[in-house]
Amino acid sequence: MLLGREEVRTEIKLMPDQVEGLRKMAERMRPERPDFDFRSATDEERSAFMAKMQAQQAERAADAKAQLEELLMPEQFERLEQIALQTQGAMALINPEVAEKLGIGKEITEAMTKDMTASQEEGREMVQSMMREQNREAAAGLREKMEEMRKALETKLVAHLSDEQKTKFEEMKGEPFELAPMPFGGRGGPGGPGGPRGAGPGGERRGPEGRGPEGRERGGDRPERNRERGGDRPERD
Questions:
Q1: Cα–Cα dist 161/126, whole Å
Q2: Where does residue 235 fall: left (phi above 0), alpha (psi -120 to 50 degrees), or beta otherwise?
Q3: Cα angle value 216/218/223 (rounded, 5°)
Q4: CA angle (146 as vertex; 81, 90 as ends), nearest 5
Q5: H/E element holding 120?
Q6: What is the pTM of this model?
Q7: CA gap 174, 5 in Å, rounded
Q8: pLDDT in tens, 112-143
Q9: How far apart are CA 97 and CA 45, in angstroms?
Q10: Residue 156 pLDDT > 80, yes or no?
Q11: I want to staple 220 with a disulfide (CB 3.0 to 4.6 A). Which of 91, 148, 216, 235 is the partner?
């Protein structure tokens, strides 16, 4: 969630009472871990599960956006949406709200979705191949390759737009905002204002080490290990 980033909170001038409101909102909306064995499931079961998850994410995104509109001032919410579009890049174009504002038709949206699905599948196959072959040299350059794929996908998506739509999309992003890169995974993945994988305007593209709604590192709530291995073993006489 973008609002977990201190630089974003500063940019939109978030007030202390709003920070507390965000904390409570994050607690209410924290999803439960799904009970699903993905490895042993059939292709049909996986597809059904993914469709269900996407529907739930879309519902949470709409709910989060409504709550944020109540919590934030209009100018804060507008700037947050602009930053969200910047972090999402061209991937935001398949967002129904963004597509509607730009006048992107159904056929173009479907073509963009196919481009994105093909790119995701290519990336998935590349990662799986590296894991099977245990190719450490290739894995070391994974971030660069994924970034190249992301740029190639953005070029394809933007190519579907007319010159007028391209200009309007850039205007929707507002003033440029520099967001520090996440540890592996760039500035994040699709999300943002009602985005397909975000939670309202606070959504951002997440890497493997992304932060949660309150800015904590994943796993940050786990108890630390206070004893070293072997620390409880009796000493030898």
A1: 29
A2: beta
A3: 90
A4: 30
A5: helix 106-133
A6: 0.67
A7: 19
A8: 999 999 999 998 888 887 777 776 666 667 88
A9: 30
A10: yes
A11: 216
pLDDT digits (tens, 9 = 90+) for 84-120: 999 999 999 999 999 999 999 999 999 999 999 999 9
> What is the C-alpha to C-alpha distance for residues 100 and 56, in angstroms, rounded to an integer?
22
Query: Structure tokens of 148?
Result: 């190249």
The answer to whether 185 and 207 are in contact (CB under 8 A) is yes
Helix (H) or strand (E) holding 69: helix 43-71
Domain residue limits, the chain: 1-89+175-212
List, for residues 202-232, the tens digit of each pLDDT value: 444 444 333 333 333 334 444 444 444 444 4
List C-alpha distances in Å: 181 to 115, 207, 211: 25, 10, 12
Distance CA 190, CA 204 (A): 6
Looking at the chain, how many residues does it have?
A: 237
Q: What is the pLDDT of residues 42-55, one digit of tens each?
A: 888 888 888 888 88
The residue type of 94 is I
Rounded CA-CA distance 125/118 in Å is 11
